[in-house]
Amino acid sequence: MASAFGGKGPLAAVRDIAATLLATLQTRLALLANEVQVEKHQILQQLTLGLALVFCLGLGVLLAVALVVLLWWEQRLAVLGFFSALFLGLAAYCYAVLRRDHAASDPLFAASLAELQEDLRQLKAAAHEQKAD
User: Fold this and answer.
1) Which candidate, 128, 129, 133, 123, places its Cα nearest to that of 17?
2) Alpha-carbon gap, residue 70 to 72, rounded angstroms
3) pLDDT tens digits along 58-105
4) What is the distance between the alpha carbons of residues 33 and 89, in angstroms, rounded to a whole number?
5) Most exposed among 55, 96, 107, 115, judged by the fewest C-beta atoms under 10 Å?
């Protein structure tokens, strides 16, 4: 029995296993913290750029519609009705795309969860091999 544990005894083997598990847990927590930091940075950057985009686009569209209304002043109701329908249609399309993309997105911390599942699989396989011996 001593040769199976490298001559250290069962208590030393349990300590080695516990140390290995703690090291694995530390590595996984570091991976998780890294993923959180990367996600936070990406979300803030996308939010800032998205808000700037919406502001600039909204202002540009408003000025373009005002210009078209001024150019065709006699048909101002038709022009305003056309642009209202156009922008409401575009808003509905964007909403549908956002819902589809949100439903298809990967769950948060997918890489960390996959690594933890792989660790669990390997531990179970090692436990089954040890029982077979």
Assistant:
1) 123
2) 6
3) 999 999 999 999 999 999 999 999 999 999 999 999 999 999 988 887
4) 41
5) 107
Residue 113 near residue 35 (C-beta atoms within 8 A): no
Q: Find where tokens 């964007």 sit.
A: 94
| Both structure tokens of 27 | 């590595």
- Single-letter residue type at 77: L
Residue with the two structure tokens 């803030």: 44
- 4/89 Cα distance (integer angstroms): 71
Please state the domain extents for the chain: 10-132
Burial class, 28, CB count within 10 angstroms (exposed 0-12 / middle 13-18 / buried 19+): middle
- Angle at the Cα of 128 from the Cα atoms of 14 and 9, rounded to 5 degrees: 25
What tokens does 55 get?
Answer: 């502001």
Can you tell me the distance from the alpha carbon of 54 to that of 11, in angstroms, rounded to the nearest whole number? 63
User: Model pTM?
Assistant: 0.49
